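Write out this protein's structure.
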Amino acid sequence: MFKGGFIQNLPKIYGLYTGGFIVFIILMAIMEQAGVSKEAIGIMFVAFTVAIYALIGWLSRTVQVDAYYVAGRQVPTVFNGMATAADWMSGASFVALAGGVYFGGYGYMAFLVGWTGGYVLVSTLLAPYLRKFGCYTVPDFIGTRYGGNGVRFCAVLVLVLASFTYVTAQINATGTIAARALQIPFELGVWVGLVSILLCSMLGGMRAVTWTQVAQYIVLIVAYLIPVFWISNRIGGGVFPHLMLGDEVARIGELEQSFGLVKNSAADIKAAGVPGGLKSIAVSHTGVPEGGMAVWKYISLAMCMMIGTASLPHILMRYFTTPSVKQARKSVAWSLFFIFLLYSSAPMLATLSKISLMDPNLPTGIIGKPISAVMAIDWVQAWSAQKQVFIADFNGDGILQLNEWFMRTGVVVLATPEVAGLPYVISGLVAAGGMAAAMSTADGLVLAIANALSHDVYFKMVDPKADVRKRLIVARVLLVVIGAAGAYIASMRITSILGAVAWAFDFAMSGLFFPLVLGVWWKRATREGAIAGMLSGLAAGTMYLVYVYPK
């Protein structure tokens, strides 16, 4: 059946994998109909997919430097596009983006515009040229291009700051999913997520991460699209709901007017004891931001996300793995196509979820119903126990109003199948997809940090004579240490998933974009200029986050 080497058989291998995953979904649906509990189905979905990723990671183990750092530079364009899309579509994209649109409306579309547009910059300014340079990491390029350990160390500093901030968001997402699927506390869920992440990347480095991410992309895109099309047909949104988005947004506006969109004051929310991080539907609005400052915040956020996309080290590393410069350029196009499949669906998923919750003509609508009846619903009880949803009866009438329903942004996608009344097997599928998205990005981020520290600091600056075995041991130890630190920070819930991601993009944009672009395109760019640009950029980026970034 399989002739030739592993690379030549990739279409057959992942074709069989996809078929097997679909069979597994059907099997779970049959088991649900046979009476198997929701908890068991959720556990089996997460456990099965994580076990597959761990198996791929084990089979991809290596002790070769090229294979560990850049997957041997033999990843075909289509599969590198899938791996990049999985690396890119993090827990923020899968779990939190639709939630941001759900509560924030138009303003959060800046994330979509920026993240998608960033790949134009990657394709035209950076990816092919970085691949041509033949380096292992982004700091390796900067250190080699400008010369000297000082500029290399500054690049490592920016990389660690941006990537570590980002990885805490991914571990936060894995903790949220593990807590719901495995019925465990969030604080324990983040450590379960960390172990899952390390199983994929520790032994095989970039080679293991690449082939795991291809498998994870298949899971996450299937898990994201099935609910969109199913819910759309269920609530009358059409066979292809993306074309009907304007009509459905207008439908939400009519529902808001019929219920009365009353916003809460900070004092009322505090008095009601609403846990931090939860938002009410009543804060949302689908209109265009008004006022010059609101427009500037939107544009600046989109620009920050766009330039940050073109500066993220774990994304740029993916284009070091292709066989040639030409294939690196093609790989960017495939990446954008695979990303488009999810990003074009995120606003629709948010819209369909909100309609399912608000429309009194649907059996799933809860707004306007007695609070006692709403609290008796299984999914409301489950998410309330996880402190992800909250009901506050402000006016004391016992009827759930728009401004009395609170939900955490990061659980909108995970809860939507239950909100829309779909079989629980779809909830298990979405949990597996969210886990795949968060794990794939966390794998790339942790690997980027560990590779930069082991290659650019330890090998290039501390011990240039270190042999391959010692270098790989250092890289693997760093994977564990960095992952553990990220899990600890994530367990503290300092900020939301999207909030942490925005900080990461800002640091990458302000500290790395100009040294990278000028290093490729301007021969007169100097070491002193690069160092000044990275350090002053970090300072400027931090000021933006404090004074301009939309809170």
